[in-house]
Amino acid sequence: MPELDLEMLETMSDAEIARTLRMDSTALGDFAKTIAQNPNSTIEPAQRLVSDAPGRLAVAGLGEQRQARGIDAGLEMDRTIGEGGMGIVRLATQRSLGRRVAVKTLKTGARDDRTTLRLLREAWVTGTLEHPNIVPVYDLGLDESGSPIIVLKRIEGVEWAAILRDEGAARERGAGDLLEYNLRILVQLCNAVALAHTKGVVHRDLKPENVMIGSFGEVYLVDWGIAVSLREDPTGRLPLAAHATEIAGTPCYMAPEMMGALGSLSERTDVYLLGAILHEVLTGGPPHQGTFKQIVASILLSRPVYPPSVPKELAEIARRAMNQRAEDRYASADEMRLRLEWYLRHRGSLALSVTAAQRLDEMRALIATGEAERARERLYRLFAEARFGFRQAIGACEDNDEAHRGLHDAIVTVVTFELERGTAEAASAVLAELEAPSPELAGRVAAAVKAQRAERRRIERLQADLDPTIGRRTRVGVTTALAVLWTIFPQVLARLEKDDPDPPYWAAYLCTGFLIVVGGVLIRWARDSLSKTAVNRSLVAIGKVFFACQLALLLGCRLIGLSLQHAEVLNLLIAAALMAAYAATQDPRFWPSAAGYLVFFFVAARWPSLRWHLLSGANFVLLVNFLVAWWRPREDRPGMVGGRIHAYRVARAARRAKKEPPAP
Predict the structure, then answer these.
(1) pLDDT value, residue 415
(2) How many other β-carbons are positioned within 10 Å of the β-carbon of residue 412?
(3) Is 449:424 a contact under the CB 8 Å cutoff?
(4) N or C: which end of the chain has fewer CB atoms below 10 A?
(5) CA 41, CA 54: separation in Å to the nearest integer?
(6) Which candidate, 111, 185, 173, places its Cα nearest to that of 148?
(7) How far apart are CA 588 and CA 583, in angstroms?
């Protein structure tokens, strides 16, 4: 049969629907009429002769027993306590035991072979099933007129349907809330149905109207009138499920296979009906509602939908129990009962999981907005709440798979967040909370941690390399000694020039050579200290360049025929250029020295005769600059100029380092 949906049914006539469902038009018409009048009422099977013949033999045997006993003689009838379409229930006293009982008989106008057999079969089934949730049958027989008499335990209570949505009734009976109360009733109902299935009996009409709740909380499954047997019954007391091809049951709760010849009845048919009752508990109404065609489509498709307010675990139980395919439902009522009891036992744990899952959703939403980096404190607060909630749920219920998954997802979410932001060690600390992280994620974190540690080592080396406090005393001592010599030597040359207005170049070579030798000796003596940091190495390098340029200048000026006077003036310009380069690339605190050399150069160019005094003055400015900048730089204080320069150097070096492969 092709799968039907509501749109297809809306375009089909009743005759086409009957052919598609392999039903005769009369049965379909009765079905439609029942739905139009009251879809919660039970459709009785037609009781075909193939199943009635054995039943008549059972009735005949009961008649023979009646002649010997006279069951009604032992009863003292009282008032009527219940009445249905064909039966009537009276209160009576059983004289032999002096106890109050309920006596069920047929109405006077409803007595015929079919109704007699139906009532007797209900008694036979109920009497066979001895269970705390099934009303006990005390006796069964026929009166003098041949009408059946069933003596039952008297039940003082109400139909479950009457209190299904009554919060007050649940509280009166000591339940935590209405949902818990109804689920505990359903668990007991599953017990009764499971017992019936062990006897090979399928109820076929499970619904809240057929469940009685006693005054002390007793739960009784009643109305076994359309039950069928899955086993051969030689006594003929029960019709076989294989013969039950006509439509029967309550439309609002029906399973697809109950629609006539659409499938075979089995224990899983009752499982479907239990799921339909759970659906009503969760939503407030039966699963199949609406017009005739809407109900037919709902029965055939069996795709219940639940609002977000319904606990996910209960919705999953209901969906599985009401699966369109019988083989995909719970295998038994007992299996469904176990799942319901699992939910009841761990309901508190599941509630914790739901709250924790909400925090996890908030975490993901915060990360998705891109605001998590600035709202890191809020992210970790949500993570702490989610983690605590999931762990509490697991503590209350170790087999709460939802809590285990939620805790795993919360941790992975934070680990991924930290990895994407380059904080690998934070990711590693969070990942350590997972007992068995995935190899892929663990590998990513390990690789990121390794790279981050390598980067940190590189930054530490850069910080040490750019730290001006390392080798400071040696650097100050060497530069001070050389600066003092540079300040004094021009005065020596000025003295020589006074004696000889045109001193030879060899005097300049001698002075420059002497300074080179002294500088070389000092650098050699302090090589360990001066080679440790970039600050010291750059200073040594610029000193070497200065002496090399000075020597080259002397040689060049000598070759082109310039006097030593012009060479010494140009020497101020070279010193200004080198100090400007050092200030621009290494330490901006030396701009005063660069400016001093440049100013003295222009003054010397205008008055060359003052060049030696000007050179001494410029070198003295450099000496003072050295002492001010390096003697007490206080680089360890971020507010000081030296500290800011150091931080700037480190940051610049770190940016450059990122462009290079990390150190092994």
Answers:
(1) 92
(2) 16
(3) yes
(4) C
(5) 28
(6) 111
(7) 4
Residue 200 Cα to chain centre, angstroms: 44
Instruction: Judge whether 135 and 157 are in contact, CB under 8 Å.
Output: no
In the chain, where are the structural domains located?
49-344, 348-453, 466-633
**49-344 is a CATH 3.30.70.100 domain:** no
- In one-letter notation, the amino acid at residue 584 is A
> What are the two backbone dihedrals, phi and then psi, of residue 534, each rounded to the nearest 5 degrees?
-65, -35
pLDDT digit string, tens, across residues 583-628: 888 778 889 989 988 999 999 888 888 888 888 888 888 888 878 8
CA dist 359 and 354 (Å) reads 9
What does the alpha-carbon distance between residue 44 and residue 345 come to, in Å, rounded to a whole number?
A: 39
Note if the pTM is more than 0.70.
no
pLDDT of residue 642: 47
Task: Answer whether 572's CB lies under 8 Å from 618's CB.
Answer: yes
| Closest CA relative to residue 206, chosen from 257, 162, 269 | 269
Strand order in the sheet with 211-214: 157-159, 211-214, 219-221
Query: What's the whole-number average pLDDT of the chain?
Result: 82
Phi, psi at residue 621, to the nearest 5°? -60, -40
Q: Beta strand 99-106 with 137-142: parallel, antiparallel or unpaired?
A: unpaired
**Lowest-confidence range among 19-33, 168-182, 191-205?**
19-33
- Burial of 281 (C-beta count, 10 Å sphere; 0-12/13-18/19+): buried
Report the candidate in 397, 400, 177, 155 with the shortest Cα–Cα distance to residue 281: 177
Dihedral sign for Cα atoms in the order 478, 480, 483, 489: negative
Residue 541: which residues within 8 A CB-CB, separation 6 or more?
none
Contact 523, 478 (CB under 8 A): yes
C-alpha of 29 from chain center: 50
In our burial notation (b when 16+ CB lie closer than 10 A, e otherwise), range 23-34 reads beeebbebbbeb
Cα atoms in the Cβ-side hemisphere of radius 13 Å centred on 187: 15
**What one-character DSSP code corresponds to residue 250?**
-
